[in-house]
């Protein structure tokens, strides 16, 4: 019997009954395979190419046998440029995929590259939104460059969402109203991870794709297991009868819902949720903008509610009316007022000056556009530092490692929520003792010391 080993992040990872309804598509893949194959699912939460390569990959290579397959399902986590320990720039991402493919082939096994599964996000026109930037394309390119089989999970899950549309699609995700599942009495909004129905459907579509993927062994999939699953029903918020009538009714409930977040006038991202509280007895909360019904949600037993549109908020200012329903009575209206950003300008870099010199510990500084949370610093496409943006729009960070003397190009990116600006390049000139100077080579017989050591001869302190 041959193995199909799945490595990747939380979207594919196996889940326990205690984590229900959360499920990973990798845990259902085995149900669609022929008798000669078994699945071993090693995907884990927040796993990245870098972390797995330097952690568990050696153990996996040791366990591989000729004819085994390794599914590399990454790209959901590596794109997060706002997280220093997780982000992989495009070159790093593709280089790791190349190293994986070569090592797996070295053991006689088959590397299979998978693009990341689509998140549940639509635009105002009902089109599925790409939330993974260039990472699906990077995976496709790496597959072509390494001659590896490719399963385009991005394409097959995007098609799945497009078939269902915004009124049904989130029923495949761990996205629940209060009271829908005992493990989440207050509800949960998760547009990235699948529930058991969604994970099984993604696994079925991955198996269908395997039938036509060049480079995979024949008879891997059992075609008799691929029958179409049940189409999920329309979401309850879209089955409310004539919801606009509630706006014309005279409020007969003394208290209405309270909006907790976002704060009045707050700058938010396109996928921002609304949260709040409601008086005891409130059964449902309805949301409107300019008199148009947007959706609704139930209220939890603790009197809280949370709601997010499956359709992303358009950029610009929004004033949303929030109305509570108790039986046949309606409450006074509360208001959620916020401003949506969908793009950011690059930061301005003021230090070091482009024509100036700095010591081996450069201090970067500048200003950023309103809404920017952090400025990320990259060199050769790799993250090297981050700088929180202050209330006055300024930012600064001193790099933690010494730079060698020379001239470099450093890139800076503004980030807010899931939004990133284009990168802006800035020249950096580092002053110091050249490595080939006699001041350094004369000490080559000894291990290097820091400038603050008491041994002689001493190196300069900065």
UniProtKB/TrEMBL annotation:
UniProt keywords, alphabetically: Hydrolase
Domain of life: Bacteria
GO molecular function, one term: hydrolase activity
Domain SGNH hydrolase-type esterase: start-end pairs: 6-183
Family matches, as InterPro entries: RhgT-like, SGNH_hydro, SGNH_hydro_sf
Gene3D superfamilies: SGNH hydrolase
Family membership: Belongs to the 'GDSL' lipolytic enzyme family.
Protein name (Swiss-Prot/TrEMBL): SGNH hydrolase-type esterase domain-containing protein
Organism listed in the record: Streptomyces gancidicus BKS 13-15
């Amino acid at each position: 019997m041959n193995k199909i080993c799945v490595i990747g992040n939380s979207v594919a990872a196996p889940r326990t009954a205690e984590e229900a309804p959360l499920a990973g598509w990798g845990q259902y893949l085995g149900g669609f395979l022929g008798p000669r194959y078994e699945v071993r699912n090693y995907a884990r939460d927040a796993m990245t190419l870098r972390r797995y390569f330097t952690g568990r990959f050696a153990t996996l290579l040791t366990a591989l046998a000729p004819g085994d397959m390794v599914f590399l399902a990454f790209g959901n986590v590596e794109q997060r440029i706002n997280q220093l320990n997780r982000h992989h720039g495009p070159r790093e991402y593709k280089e790791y995929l190349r190293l994986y493919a070569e090592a797996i082939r070295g053991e006689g096994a088959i590397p299979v590259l998978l693009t990341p599964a689509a998140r549940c996000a639509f635009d105002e026109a009902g089109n599925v939104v790409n939330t993974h930037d260039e990472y699906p394309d990077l995976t496709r390119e790496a597959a072509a460059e390494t001659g590896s089989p490719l399963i385009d999970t991005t394409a097959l899950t995007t098609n799945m969402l497009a078939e269902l549309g915004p009124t049904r699609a989130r029923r495949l995700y761990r996205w629940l109203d209060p009271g829908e599942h005992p493990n989440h009495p207050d509800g949960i909004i998760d547009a990235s991870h699948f529930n058991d129905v969604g994970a099984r459907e993604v696994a079925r579509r991955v198996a269908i794709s395997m039938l036509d993927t060049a480079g995979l062994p024949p008879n891997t999939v059992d075609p008799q297991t691929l029958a179409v699953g049940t189409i999920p029903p329309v979401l309850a918020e879209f089955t409310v009868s004539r919801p606009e009538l509630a706006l014309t009714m005279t409020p007969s409930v003394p208290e209405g819902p309270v909006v907790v977040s976002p704060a009045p006038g707050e700058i938010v991202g396109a996928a921002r949720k609304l949260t709040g509280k409601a008086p005891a007895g409130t059964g449902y909360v309805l949301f409107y903008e300019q008199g148009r019904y947007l959706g609704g949600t139930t209220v939890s037993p603790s009197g809280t509610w949370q709601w997010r549109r499956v359709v992303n908020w358009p950029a610009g200012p929004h004033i949303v009316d929030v109305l509570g329903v108790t039986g046949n009575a309606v409450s006074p209206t509360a208001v959620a007022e916020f401003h949506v950003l969908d793009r950011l300008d690059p930061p301005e870099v003021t230090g070091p000056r482009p024509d100036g010199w700095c010591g081996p510990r450069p201090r970067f500084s500048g200003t950023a556009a309103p809404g920017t949370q952090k400025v990320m610093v990259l060199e050769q496409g790799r993250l090297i530092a981050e700088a929180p943006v202050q209330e006055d729009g300024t930012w600064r960070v001193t790099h933690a490692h010494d730079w060698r003397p020379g001239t470099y190009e450093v890139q800076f990116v503004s980030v807010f929520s899931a939004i990133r600006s284009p990168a802006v390049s800035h020249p950096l000139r580092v002053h110091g003792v050249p490595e080939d100077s006699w001041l350094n080579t004369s000490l080559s017989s000894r291990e290097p010391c820091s400038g603050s050591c008491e041994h002689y001869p001493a190196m300069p302190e900065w």
